[in-house]
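Hey, can you fold this one?
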Amino acid sequence: VQVARELGALVRLQFALQFLARSHLLAGDLAAAERAIEEDRAIARATGTSPVAYIEMTLAAWRGEEALTSELIERQQREASERGIGRLAEFAIYSAALLNNGTGRYDVACDAARRAFARDSLGFNALVVPEAAEAASRTGDVALLQAALAWMAERTAVAPTDWALGIEARVRALASEGDAAERLYRESLEC
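Sure. Predicted structure:
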C-alpha cells in the first residue's frame, strides 16, 4: 500500500510538472518549460513509469520542430485512442494547429484549430482560440474568427485577467484592419 501511495504521489508530481511546463510555455520561457519536461522524464525513468509528455509535443511545435512534433502528435493520438484519454487528443490537435500556423500552413492549421475549438473542452479553448483566430484570419474563415472572438469576449467579460484581455485584443486585431488592428496589437502586448 505504501509503495502504491508513493508511486501515486510521483505520478501527481509528473502531472504538476506538465502544468508548470505549460505555464512556462505561455510565459514564453521555453528553457524553463524544457527543464520541467526533463524532470518529468527523470521521474519516469527512475520509477519505470511513462512520462506524461503532452507538453513536450507542444514545446516542439512552438519551436517549429516539424519532424519531432509530427512524431509526438502521432504517438499521442495513438495513445489517446488506445487509452480513451481525450485530453491527449486535444493537445495533439492543438499542437498541430500551433505547428502549422508557425510554419505558414494556415489551411492545415485552420482545420486542426476548428476541430479543437469545436470540442470546447473546459480550460482548453483558451489555448486554442489564438491559434484558431490566427489560422482563420489567414484563410479568410470569417465564421471561425468571429466565433473565436465571441468565445474570448464572453470569458473576458467575467474574468478580465491580463492574459485573457491580451488574447482578446490580439483576436480583435486579427479581425481588424489598418490603424485599428495596429492599436489592438499594441494593446495585446501591453496586457
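The chain has a mean pLDDT of 91. Let me know if you want another pass with a different chain boundary.
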